[in-house]
Amino acid sequence: MKQAIFLLLSVFLLFGLLTASGCSSKQASEGFAIYLTKDDIPVAEMEKLSHIDLADTPAVSINDIISYNRATHEIELTPDAYERVMGLEVSTSGRSFLVCVDRAPVYWGAFWTPLSSQSFSGVSIWVYPYSQQGNIITLQLGYPSQSFYQGEDPRSNPIIMESLDKAGKLR
Fold first, then answer.
1. Sheet holding 32-36, edge to edge
2. Is the Cβ–Cβ distance between 107 and 44 less than 8 Å?
3. Average pLDDT score over residue span 65-91
4. CA distance to 99, 110, 143, per residue, from 170 (Å)
5. In the beta sheet, which residues pair with residue 170?
6. pLDDT-based confidence at 128, cuts 50/70/90?
7. Residue 60's beta-bridge partner residues?
8. What is the model's pLDDT at position 129?
9. Where are the domains of the chain?
10. Model-level pTM greater than 0.85?
11. What is the mean pLDDT of residues 141-159?
């Protein structure tokens, strides 16, 4: 009798562990997000690296986004997310970020301060505390203007657009 109870408890325990591990391995897709780099990698070193670790949490998640304009790449954020982005410490050399879908990097860029006299040939998000644009940030080409950008424009990547559309954020 004791063996039967032990066997029955063992089967329930094993079933419970298998069910729990199966549930924990299935994560909901995160979708579009903008991450800082884990070790705050300088902008000048980003292109040289083959692997870059993401920060633990995104600087901008899909839940922070109200809408994304596919034509202008303007992102309307919630007020809290906008404050968080505008509150980032950004040096005059920029601050690296990665645009990801489901934590997989699609392209990289840098937060940039208009106080910088350095140019940048990548995708930039300008961080300044007194914006007249409401809660909108823009993924821009180059800094201080698009004429400093070289290469192909990665912002309309189909993976990104599909993720934003699936989340109902794309307009």
1. 32-36, 95-101, 104-112, 120-126, 140-143
2. no
3. 96
4. 16, 22, 25
5. 68
6. confident
7. 34
8. 67
9. 32-166
10. no
11. 96
Rg over alpha carbons for the chain, rounded to the nearest Å, is 21
**Cβ distance 67 to 169 under 8 Å?**
yes
* CA angle (134 as vertex; 128, 137 as ends), nearest 5: 55
d(Cα 81, Cα 91) in Å, to the nearest integer? Answer: 20
Residue 76 is which amino acid?
E
Q: Which of 124, 91, 92, 95 is nearest to 36 (CA)?
A: 95
Q: Closest by alpha carbon to 137, among 83, 100, 62?
A: 83
**59-73 burial code (b ≥16 CB/10 A, e <16):** bbebebbeebeeeeb
With 60 as the cut, is the pLDDT of residue 43 above it? yes
The string of pLDDT tens digits covering residues 87-101 is 999 999 999 999 999
What are the tokens at 124? 């930039």
- Give the DSSP per-residue string, the chain: -HHHHHHHHHHHHHHHHHHHHHHHH------EEEEEBTT---GGGGGG-S--PBPSS-SB-GGGEEEE-TTT-EEEE-HHHHHHHHTS---TT-EEEEEEETTEEEEEEEEE-TT----EEEEEEE--SS-SSSSEEE-EEEESSGGG--S---TT-HHHHHHHHHTT-B-
CA distance 82 to 76: 8
Residue 19 tokens read as 């069910």
